[in-house]
Every structure is written in C-alpha cells, then in structure tokens.
Amino acid sequence: NLVSGAFRVVLGVSCRYVYIWISYALFEELQAKDVERCRQVYVKMLEVIPHKKFSFAKIWSLYASFEVRQRDLDKARLIFGRAIAECGKPKIFVAYAQLELRLGCIDRCRKIYAKFIELHPFNPRAWIAMIDLEVLAEEQARARALCELAIGMEEMDTPELLWKAYIDMEVGWGAVDRARSLYERLLEKTQHVKVFKSFADFEWRIVESLPNARKVIERGIEVCKENSWDEERASLLEHWLSMERESGDAQSIGRVFNMLPKKVKKIRVERDKESGAESTVETTAYVFPDDPGSAA
C-alpha cells in the first residue's frame, strides 16, 4: 500500500512520465499481485497520453501482454486493434502478429500484416514481415508474389532491403538460378559496387564457383572504369584479392595484387567565392597500373 501510494503521489505531479506508469503497472501485477488495479493503471495511462500527437507502442504491447497472462485473449486482441487505430506504429503490428503466430493463427497474422502494408506501403519491413510469414508457412508462391509486388514499387524506402530478402529467400530454398536472375535484374536498376560484391560472394560461397565470382568482379570493374569510379574500383579489387587469398592460388593472387592502384595524395587550392580567401584541400587519387598512360 505504501509503494502504491508513492506511485500515485508521483504520478499526480508528473502524470505524463510514461516510465513511472509502466513501473507502477508492473509493480501492481508482479509484486502486489493486484490484477484489477494493474488493469486500471494501464487504462489510466492510455487516457493521459495524447495519442493524436504521439503514442508509445511499448505501452500497448505491455497492456496486451498483461491481458494474455490473464488468459483473456479477446481483450488482448481488442487492445492491439485499438493500438493499430490510435498508434499504428510498426512495432504494434509485429507484436500483435507474434502473439497470433504463437497461437498458430496464420490467417490472423496475414490480416495483421496486410493492414501493416496498407498503412505503411513504402516501409520494406512491412513487406518483409509478410514475406517471412509466408516462408514460415511454406507458401512459396505467395512469398514470391509478395516479393515481386514489393520490388516493383518505385516509391519504396530502402528497396535494397527487399532485394536482399528476396535473394536470401531463394538461396534458402536452394533456388540458385532464381537468385542469380535476381542479381542480374538488380544490376539493371543499380550498378552500386555493393551489389557486385554481394553477387560475387553468392557465386563464390553459395555456388562455390570462384571463376563465376571473378567474372562478376570483372564486370563491376569495367563499370567503374566506364564511369571513372576510382574509389569503387579500388574497393572491388580489394574484395577480389581477399577472395583469391582465401580460395585462389599464388598465380591468381599475384595477378590481382598487381592490379591494385597506388594512392597519390594531391593538394588542391580552393578560393572562397564570397571572401576570396584561399584554402588547401587534400584529396586522394588512384593510379591503376593497367590504365593507359599509367606511370605505375
């Protein structure tokens, strides 16, 4: 009673300090063993939070988990449903779906994740959560269809997460040709050096074909040459060298080592357009031995 009273006094002064409310609710449930008062604390906690301005996914999840421990699944579901309506943060959908998954309710999980995608259509984690569910359910056709829909959305945030998830899924199923095809499709969209490295690692470690991996790296190097991406080109060569050191022989290691560039420090003088003051800027230039006119 003394501790409960202390909590009430503190909350009377600072009623919006969320972690005091959480501590109070946990105390009533776990220490005082007063289930009804704990429930009242959660209800009051949610009343004082201005959900239209901000909300806390953790509170909704704690409240729902409390009702699960009281074996009232219907109430827990109602709490999560209200949380989606008033809060709608990604963590809410994940927590709700995890509850239904533990109960073996796959169809309910699908509905939750469908709502997640509806409210957050450009969040790759919403799509990945749904895809992972279908993989777990061994629904390959559904999972692939979702992947295709997701990577086809131009407005998607950090689409590379979806491409990685799609490729990893195919690799996990042993669908090597499908995974390779995805890498080729991805390279049509972006020629980022990370894609070439990942593709090479796929050929090297998953397919166990060092010759294939070398071809991927060589393609990447040619792209870098065409675009004068010297730093990226050097990075690919370093990656190639690490592959050869682990799986190649002395001849292949020497070949790649001799392709590495020399780094040359250069000083450039810049003049401020407004003040006219001059300053020096140090830059790094890469000199590749196989470039025409190279003095390396």
Automatic annotation (TrEMBL):
InterPro entries: HAT (IPR003107), Syf1-like (IPR045075), TPR-like_helical_dom_sf (IPR011990). It holds the Pfam family HAT_PRP39_N. SMART domains: HAT. It is found in: Nucleus. GO terms for cellular component: post-mRNA release spliceosomal complex; precatalytic spliceosome; Prp19 complex; U2-type catalytic step 2 spliceosome. Belongs to the crooked-neck family. PANTHER family: CROOKED NECK-LIKE PROTEIN 1, PRE-MRNA SPLICING FACTOR. This is Putative crooked neck family 1 protein isoform 2. It comes from Toxoplasma gondii ARI. The lineage of its organism: Eukaryota, Sar, Alveolata, Apicomplexa, Conoidasida.
